[in-house]
Structure prediction request, 189 residues.
Amino acid sequence: MRRLAIEAWRRAGAMGLVSPDAASSDSPDLAHLLQQLREAGIARLPAMRLATAVSPSTAEAEKVLRFVIAALDASPVPSYEWPAVSRVLDADQLGALLNISPASLRRYAAGERKTPDEVAARLHHLALIVGDLAGAYNDVGVRRWFHRARTALNGRTPAALLSGDWNPDEEEPRKVRELARSLVTMSAT
Prediction:
């Protein structure tokens, strides 16, 4: 169950919902994580059920945490993700990866305009990638990772596969996420 709790916390941290640093502690504060998810409107009922259970069984807690992880993967929250991703990627790199103008990036990030769904989906995908990479690289390494050719991507760079009006459900963006995710699984073994 601890591994699932850390995974849920790591993803929530990548999305800006909680401080990512606490995921590396011996016991991430699960009650705090669930509270933050409820406030963001993610997995409200399962999170509430687990938070209010007197003594949930390990199996019940694991089931809820798996659901929470899936809900985090499927739930863009641009108001949280803009600041989280912007702390690592500068405006030029982020705008290029999202295929939006610097002016639009500023307006969306400041909340002056609602982030369009397709941009929110790309931002969410990037937040999860950056979160995966943060387990292996520092911020400079994460930024550089997007511009280095990768054998697993047939010699192309992640940035090349995340160009134009890409959709996270397309094959190439999924490959980029899988490559970043593989770094987390390697460090966990």
